[in-house]
Amino acid sequence: MKAIRVYEFGPPEVMKLEELPDLWPGPGELVVRVKAAGVNPVDTYIRTGAYSRKPPLPYTPGTDGAGLVETTSQDVSRVETGERVYLSGSLTGTYAEQALCEESQVHHLPDGLTFAEGAAVNVPYSTAYRALFQLARSRPGETVLVHGATGGVGLASVQLARAAGLTIVATGGTDKGRTLLSEQGAHFILDHTNPNHLDEIDHLTDGGGVDVIVEMLANVNLDRDLQALARRGRVVVVGSRGRVEIDPRNIMARDAAVLGMLLFNTPDADMASIQAGLAAGLENGTLRPVVGREIPLAEASRAHHEVMAPGAYGKIVLVP
């Protein structure tokens, strides 16, 4: 099989396509023939070696993917050979033609979804679900600001919030992205390239502020976020690329909370709950990933450059 391999941490160009032996499952394992692999910003952080989790070298990147169950061990009973599945992790990495998985890492992919869409489920939707419901404890009727909403986690947040009865304020940096947010059901859409865009929050909320903020770039936005919060509001920091200076009095005056998260810290029981919620949304059609670009597996380095560029539009996936 072909797979991307990383022998040293560094820039995107350290990823190389190689030919490796085919995979075979051990007890409780199965092999998935990968039809698409999701590219997440966290993949790039891990590749640099600067992330809190460092895989042993060499390794194959990627957590997300979708494909067909190719081979199973005898004690695997929840999925069958030939079944369409999406992955919530693997033992060997998903930037490859095959991925070795534990049974708990594979989930049924509804017939109405493409493999590329299936590869866009796990990290974006799990992150959004945990931020909105397990950490911020969002409730129907509340208002949520999704800051930088045109990427994978942002669009997942919009879809999940809409299905749960929240009022959504979403920001995007391009006309194309803001049109997408309207199509996805955001109630109010702001242009975050305007340095004063959060001044509109006061008008949109009749001076009350937003109850929840899902923040993708805290090093840029957090200080202003705190001024846009309602009393007892919550900010969940999903992404940050540096340090930020804030005024803690903006938290104190609102009895507010700033919550940080890494998806990899999620307890097993919480992750099982997330997957159950996502499965229901994928089955009933309230959740549908938006795939912005499909890039050949051999061009993984280009995908890593593009996923970190401004102007996100949906999910980037690699196609073996």
Describe the structure concisely:
This protein has 320 residues and is an alpha/beta fold. It has helices at 41-48, 115-118, 122-135, 152-163, 175-183, 200-204, 218-228, 249-252, 268-284, 300-307; strands at 2-6, 15-19, 29-39, 64-72, 84-88, 98-102, 106-108, 143-147, 167-172, 188-191, 210-215, 229-237, 257-260, 291-296, 315-319. Helix 8 links the parallel strand 12 (229-237) and strand 13.
Please explain how this structure is put together.
The structure is a single chain. Helices cover 29% and strands 28% of the residues. With 320 residues, the chain is of the alpha/beta class. It has two domains: 2-121 and 289-319, Quinone Oxidoreductase, Chain A, domain 1; 124-264, NAD(P)-binding Rossmann-like Domain (Rossmann fold), CATH 3.40.50. The strands form three sheets. Strands 3, 4, 5, 6, 7, 14 and 15 form a seven-stranded mixed β-sheet that branches. α3 crosses α4 (152-163). It is globular. The mean pLDDT is 96.
Largest sheet: 7 strands, mixed
Backbone CA Rg: 20 Å
Shape: globular
| CATH structural fold name of the largest domain | Quinone Oxidoreductase, Chain A, domain 1
* Arithmetic mean pLDDT: 96
CATH superfamily (homologous) name of the largest domain: Medium-chain alcohol dehydrogenases, catalytic domain
Counting DSSP H or I runs of 4 or more residues, the number of helices is 10
CATH level 1 class label of the largest domain: Alpha Beta
Structural class per helix/strand content?
alpha/beta
Could you tell me how far the N terminus lies from the C terminus, measured between alpha carbons in angstroms? Answer: 10 Å
Architecture per CATH nomenclature, i.e. the level-2 architecture of the largest domain: Alpha-Beta Complex
Low-confidence stretches: none
- Total strands: the figure is 15
Helix content: 25-40%
How many structural domains can be distinguished in the coordinates? 2
- What is the string of helix and strand elements? EEEHEEEEHHEHEHEHEHEHEHEHE
The percentage of residues in β strands lies in 25-35%
